[in-house]
Amino acid sequence: SSGKQQPTAAAPAHSGAAAVAMRRVGMFGGTFDPIHAAHLRMAEAFVAQCRLDELRLIPAGNPYHRDSGPQASAEQRLAMVQLAIAGRAGWQADDREVRRSRPAYTVETLEELRAELGPACQLWLLIGGDSLHQLPGWQRWQHILQLANIAVAVRPGFDAANLPAVLQPYWRQVPDFSNSAASGTIRALTLPPVPLSATLLRHKLAGGEDCSGLIAPAVMQYITRHRLYRSTAR
Ligand code: ATP
């Protein structure tokens, strides 16, 4: 580690000066194949509960092995994200991973974002509750927490006592919105479970089922026009 950015978890610093409120930016990455109602519900909870000024939705690029990867191209998945969030102030579809020539690690994307936003910005990464237990296995995971805070969309019944011990020091029952918390904390987002996944949607679409209500209308039109997800056959 460069030592330039210290995690605030270990030593929260309190500046006495009444500072201008720190800008808060959230990152929500996913395959988004396609983006659906549960993603939008998560994103809304993320914006509200982390009080974000800005949200970046970042579709993953195309993986090396297409046969096991997404059905829609990276460009199509990005276009659907753009359509789904059109008109929402502060929400942006971020094409950095789509433009990349190789798959990106989360830490790399966060490094780029942090470099662009500067140190005086509270950065939040949204992850699914199931990912939390895998976090200690992610590429340079401690550096992720030097760059950002993490908001976890947990399932009902989630108990922080069951967190891996290495994550315990970062955990906050009550999020810290002070200017000292640019990075280094993990908190839960509370949102009702939505029994929906892109996999389920692709099956419904391939079977010709009506998916209105589960997909934004503009995205549904795009899927129809581009004849996406027409068959489950790979
Ligand atoms: P797939 O079924 O293709 O894996 P997905 O919708 O589960 O798709 P992504 O498109 O990668 O997955 O979604 C981005 C993030 O949103 C992931 O962290 C995923 O866990 C989360 N997510 C998706 N659907 C839900 C849901 N219904 N409830 C909670 N989290 C969800």
Detailed description of the structure:
This protein has 234 residues and is α/β, with parallel strands linked by helices. The protein has eight helices and six strands, in the order E-H-E-H-E-H-H-E-H-H-E-E-H-H. Helix 2 (74-85) packs antiparallel against helix 8 and helix 4 (106-117) runs parallel beside helix 6. The longest helix is centred in the first third of the chain and has 13 residues, at 37-49. The N and C termini lie far apart (43 Å). Adenosine-5'-triphosphate (ATP) is lined by residues 30-33, 38-39, 42, 127-128, 131, 153, 194, 196-199.
What is the spatial order of strands in the main beta sheet? Answer: 3-2-1-4-5-6
Q: Helix/strand-derived class?
A: alpha/beta
Proportion of residues in helical segments = 25-40%
**Continuous helix count:** 8
Query: Rg to the nearest angstrom?
Result: 18 Å
> What profile does the largest beta sheet have?
6 strands, parallel
Kindly state the number of beta strands: 6
Secondary-structure element series: EHEHEHHEHHEEHH
Beta-strand fraction estimate: 5-15%
Question: How many angstroms separate the termini?
Answer: 43 Å
Mean pLDDT: 88
Shape, please? globular
Low-confidence stretches: 1-16
Ions, cofactors and other bound molecules: adenosine-5'-triphosphate
